[in-house]
Write a structure and sequence with these properties.
The protein has about 120 residues and is α+β, with helices and mostly antiparallel strands. It is built from three helices and seven strands, in the order E-H-H-E-E-E-E-E-E-H. The chain is globular and about 40 Å long.
Length: about 120
């Protein structure tokens, strides 16, 4: 299996961590911007894109700070979404850590750009 490379992306979001956090953890909120549908059952999130189901377990959650999902069928890979608030300016950003095959790098960046754009429209940021 081809090794994946770790990528880090950051997006400025005009919102508060308290408002943002449900959108990165709760299935109904995730389905509004991240995937076509998100189901949660027995500790497992099912992310649906174009009728393809990808299963992940929430392995870390810090309220109003971050979530980390570990892919069940793609061990040891995960993705993490962290809410970062600048102490001086109070600007809020989402920091994304993801893993991708090198030949899919640009496509994955575009997918994240589009997804974050959807999130911003959903929360009115």
């Amino acid at each position: 299996m081809e090794q994946k490379i770790e990528i880090h992306l950051e997006y400025i979001i005009n919102s508060s961590p308290r408002i943002l956090f449900p959108y990165i953890q709760e299935p109904n909120a995730l389905s509004q911007w991240f995937a076509d549908d998100v189901n949660y059952r027995d500790g497992i999130y099912e992310f649906v894109w174009d009728d393809e189901v990808n299963r992940a377990k929430l392995i870390s959650s810090k309220e109003n700070k971050s979530v980390r999902f570990k892919w069940i069928e793609d061990d040891p890979y995960y993705f993490e979404i962290e809410i970062i608030q600048d102490e001086l300016t109070n600007d809020v950003a989402l920091s994304i850590t993801d893993f991708v095959k090198s030949d899919n790098l640009e496509d994955r960046k575009k997918i994240w750009d589009n997804s974050i754009g959807y999130l911003q429209s959903v929360i009115g940021a």
